[in-house]
Structures are given as C-alpha cells and as structure tokens.
Amino acid sequence: AAHWVAAWPAATSAWRTRAATSSLKAWRAFFLKATIYGYDINDFSFFEQEATFAFQGDQSSRQDLARFLEMYGGPEFRVVLDDGSHASSHQQISLASLFPAVEPGGLYIIEDLFWQPFEETPRTLDVLQKFVETSKFESPFVSEDEARYLEETIERIEIYKPTDSEFAVVYKKE
C-alpha cells in the first residue's frame, strides 16, 4: 500500500475544522488503497478510520515532526503533501525533517507558495528557485547537515504556477 502524509492548515475556526476533515475525506476517497496520515496543529483524531490517521503537532517544531516520524515514519512515504501553515520557515523545517522519510523516487509537494501568513525571508519559493538554478539549498531555517542531505537526495524540483497558487514538486532520487 502507498503511504501518504499531509500537513494541513492550523485550524482554529469551525470552517477550518470542516476544511481539514474534508481534506482527509477527499484523500481517503481519491486514494482508496493508500494509508493516509494527516498532521495538524489541532486534534483530528475523531476522524481516524481504517488506513487514515490524524496526528496533532506543530509544523514548526522539529520535536513534533520527529515524534510524528517515530509514530508513523516506517515504511517510507511515497508522497508528502505540505498544505500546512504556509509560513516559509515552517515549510522549510518540514521539508528538512520529513524528506528523509520519503522513499527513493518519491515526491514531496509544497502547496500555496505564493501566500504567507506573515512576512519572513527567505520565502520557500525563492529557496526552491535558487536550488533549481544552483543545486544549493540555502536557508537559515535548515541546518548545514539538513541542507547537504537535501542537495544530495533531491533529483529535481518543478515549480508550477497554474493561477495564483504556486506549488512545488520535489522529486527524491531513486
């Protein structure tokens, strides 16, 4: 079975709660044979069902991400979809923390690169575009060891701009 993980927005309102559970429902309906792991700042364990799990954690916390991987990180994930807080620091920390758990040939997708909940630099879109140009991963939110790992294991990055919602697909080497 395929293993998927997704980080969803920090849900605080009833609308966000419905959106996050709707996301889990949508992934479950679309990927019938996959095991799906949701990751959110709020507790969505009430939605757990066969092959669908919800983990409560902070996307900016390496400790929470490590706890998530201890709990669900094996076998490796075929796809990680980050549609989390959208903060650049959180996206970069999550990429550095979760990419080692992506299976060879797997994908790491980061959504909504155009929108940030607060201004910070460097933006993830800029970091990824620079990697495409130079093969160097440079971010103050990622350690030197994490950056070297990403440089050694990323096959390529494709950045898509279909309308106003840029997203990136990071391919892991086989």
Description:
The structure is a single chain. The longest helix has 17 residues, at 14-30. By secondary structure, the chain is of the alpha/beta class. The protein starts with a strand and ends with a strand. It has 5 helices and 7 strands, in the order E-H-E-E-H-E-H-E-H-H-E-E. A 7-stranded mixed β-sheet has the order 3-2-1-4-5-7-6, with helices on both faces.
Q: Secondary-structure map with pairings?
A:
Elements: E1 3-7, H1 14-30, E2 35-40, E3 52-56, H2 62-72, E4 77-82, H3 88-98, E5 102-110, H4 124-134, H5 144-153, E6 154-160, E7 167-172
Parallel strand pairs: 1-2, 1-4, 2-3, 4-5
Antiparallel strand pairs: 5-7, 6-7
Helix pairs in contact: 2-3
Distance between the termini: 19 Å
Please, how many helices? 5
Shape label:
globular
Q: Find the structural class using helix and strand composition.
A: alpha/beta
Mind summarizing the main beta sheet? 7 strands, mixed
Percentage beta strand: 25-35%
- Given as residue ranges, the uncertain stretches (5+ residues, pLDDT < 50) are 7-19
Helix content: 25-40%
Rg calc = 15 Å
Q: If you average the pLDDT, what whole number results?
A: 85
